[in-house]
């Protein structure tokens, strides 16, 4: 399902010539998946898991979900579920709560459908409803919830137990309610998810 990244407009092999910097194209790779305590990640055939992503334990990726380069999804104390057409962008870390980590009970991380999680975000034992949007470098802490059609601004910290209501924009550190989302912003969330389905297909093997 995967292939190496190739930039649009990158120099051709003939342009590179025989330079010692030219690298032969090698076969695509799958992201690294690890079994943990008998749980093996369940990655749908139509999902994309980048070659440098690490997916561990009780993790499931639904159809057309995508997990991008250098992400870590570690389902070693509870489950992680990524819904259809949702994207977890480059460098994001997704983890869970566990009794073994001092939490009062295990708690999964659940990501609904058509969700966008921006680059370098952190999700920890939280719930993201359908068509929610987490901005780049934002953090969603344990027991926090984002309801459907909601947005967390880039760089924000949604502290434990807080809820971003449906149709709301929150931002800041700690994050607080800012305003209601405009119809066009909600449309953008859906468009973002659809765009990442297309991006993932362009990174898949066989799409030369």
UniProtKB/TrEMBL annotation:
This is Gamma carbonic anhydrase. PANTHER family: DYNACTIN SUBUNIT P25 (PTHR13061), GAMMA CARBONIC ANHYDRASE 1, MITOCHONDRIAL (PTHR13061:SF50). It comes from the Eukaryota. Signal peptide: none annotated. SUPFAM superfamilies: Trimeric LpxA-like enzymes. InterPro entries: LbH_gamma_CA-like (IPR047324), Transf_Hexapept/Carb_Anhydrase (IPR050484), Trimer_LpxA-like_sf (IPR011004). Residues 1-27 are annotated as: Disordered.
């Amino acid at each position: 399902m995967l292939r190496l990244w190739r930039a649009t407009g990158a120099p051709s092999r003939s342009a590179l010539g025989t330079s010692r910097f030219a690298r032969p194209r090698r076969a695509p790779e799958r992201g690294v998946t690890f079994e943990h305590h008998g749980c093996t990640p369940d990655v749908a055939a139509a999902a994309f898991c980048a070659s440098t992503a690490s997916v561990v334990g009780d993790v499931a990726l639904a159809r057309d979900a995508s997990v991008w380069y250098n992400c870590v999804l570690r389902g070693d104390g509870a489950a992680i579920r990524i819904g259809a057409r949702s994207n977890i962008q480059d460098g994001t870390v997704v983890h869970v709560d566990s009794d073994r980590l001092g939490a009062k009970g295990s708690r999964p991380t659940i990501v609904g459908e058509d969700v966008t999680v921006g680059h370098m975000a952190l999700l920890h034992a939280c719930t993201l409803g359908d068509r929610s949007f987490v901005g780049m470098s934002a953090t969603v802490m344990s027991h926090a919830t984002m309801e459907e059609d909601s947005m967390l601004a880039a760089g924000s910290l949604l502290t434990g137990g807080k809820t971003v209501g449906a149709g709301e924009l929150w931002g800041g550190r700690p994050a607080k309610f800012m305003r209601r989302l405009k119809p066009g912003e909600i449309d953008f969330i859906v468009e973002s998810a659809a765009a990442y389905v297309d991006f993932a297909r362009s990174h898949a093997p066989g799409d030369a």
